[in-house]
Amino acid sequence: MQKNAWRDSDALTKICSAMVPIICLYWGYDGLIRSFGLTISLAVVFLCLFVERKVMVYKPFLLFSLFYIGRRLISLLITGDFSASAISDFFLIVIVALSIIIISAYINKDILYKVWFVLGTLVAGMVLYQAFVCYVLDQKVVPFIIGPLNDTSGNWSIGSYRPSACFPEPTVVVLFLAPLIAMTLKKQKYLFAVIFSVVTLLTTSTNGIISIVILWGFYFLLKSDFSNFKKIMLSILLLVCSAILVNLPIFANTFSKLMHELTGSSSNLYVRMIFGYDTFKQMGLLGKIFGTGYNSVRDLRLNGGINLGSVTDTTLYSYLNSIQSVLIYSGVIGLILWIKTLISMYKDVEQEYKSFLILTIVLMFGTGTFYNVVSLLIYLFLISTMNENWILVKIKN
Length: 397
What we know:
The chain is 62% helix and 3% strand.
C-alpha cells in the first residue's frame, strides 16, 4: 500500500512532524525514560494511540523489529537475567522501535522541514561560534547545555578542540544535520545545503566527511532529470570543491583526522570497525546462526571466553557498530533479514532520499545507531520517506 498523504494535514500530524526534530535535538539529555528526547517520543506515541484506533506502519521495518525484539526477549528468558539493567535495555529497544514505527507515519514533510531548519540553524550557529573559539582563538570548548542533565561529567564537561554544539560529541551534530541537508537538497535549496554541509565539516568528524560526499554525490548521480553530461560536470565540481576544502587551513583537522583513521593508526579504529567481528568469530556455531544468548555484549566479552586482544579500556567492551549489533544479537539469520529489509527500503524510498538511505547503510559500519536512542536521529526521518509497503493496523478498544 502507498502511504500517499495519509493524515497529512490534521492536528496530530502537525504535532508529530514538529516533535521529530525536537526529539532528535534532546536525545542526549536526561528524562524520565533514559533521555528527554525518548520521553517526548513515548508521549507522542501514546498520543497517537490514544487519538487513533488505527495507524499506518511501514511493513518491512515492522517485521524486522518484531523479529529483533523477539530474539532479544528469548535471550532474556534463556539467561534468566532479570536485573534492572537487562530489563531496562530490553524496554529501551521496544520503546525506540515503537517510536520509529508509529511516529514516522504521521509526518508532514513541509512542517518537518520548517521546524528542523529552525533547530538546524540554531545548532549551526553554535558550531560556528565554537569553531571560531577552537580554530581562531585556539581555545577548548564544551557543549552548550540546553536541557536537563543530572551528570555533567564526561563529554559534557571535558574541553575539546572540536565543535559539538549542544550534543555530547561532534558525530551527533553530523547525524542531526544529515536529514536537514537531504531535505534542502530535495527542495533544491542548494545555498542552505552548502551552509549546513560546511558546518558539518567544521565538527572534524570523519563521519561528517563521509556524510557530505555521499549525500551530495549520490543525490546528483541518482537524479533522474539530470543528463549524464550534467552529472559528470557536477561530479567534477564536487571534486574541485573537495580539493579546495582539503587545502583550507580551517579544515586541516578534519582531513588529517580522516587520514589518521584510514591508515589504521587511530586507536579507536579497531574498536569501531573490527572488535565486533573478532567477537563474532569466537562465538559458538549456534550463536553465530541465531545470535548470542547474552543480554549485553559487555557480559559476552567478559564472561563468554572472548579474547579481548589489545582492548584494555573496559568502557569500550560494550561498543558495537550497527551491523555488528545485528550480527551478534540476532546472528546470520538476523543479518539476512536486515539486508532484505534494506533492499525493500531502497525500492520504496523516495528517489531524492536514496542518498540518505545509502548514507545510513554506510554509517552502520562505523556508528552504533541500532535500536538505541541515537537511532531516533536517523530512522524517524528515514522511515517517513518510504512511499510503498505501508499497511494499516487497527487497534481494538
